[in-house]
Amino acid sequence: MYLDETLIMTDIEGNSNVEVLELMAKNLCDQGLVKESYIEAVIDREKKFATGLPTNGCSVAIPHTDIQHVNRKAISVGVLKNSVEFGIMGEESATTPVKLVFMLAMDQQHSQLALLQNLMQVFHDETILNKLASESSKTRIKDLLLNQLNFPVKGGE
Which of 31, 52, 76, 134 gives 20 to 30 Å between its CA and that of 99? Predict the structure, then answer.
């Protein structure tokens, strides 16, 4: 799993979840971690299977798509300047104002499950979510996540 400061985007300004997803996916593509097809695939998947989660503190989204669009396992973190509405996972039409986006680029199905389980523990901790949402230092966001995820995450190799 790859995570470094280049994959952490703070003060993202977007008028819609599509704008936010496009910006974050393009960054993953620019880093060579995903194929260009990932950008459209992650947006299309979000439209069909919403990933917004109303959590205590601030709502989060965990957009991802199929493994064939991924070159290397990575996680990108987006801190939005202003919340953007995302559909709620498992709901037909309800939305939640998302402040934190955890975009996953997974190259194997089984590794996604382990990461999602670890992320869910982070999402249940209101203090950590509020820290992530208000932190401006990309290094501190990365360090906080690495400490919480208990997952083999590698920085800039």
Answer: 31
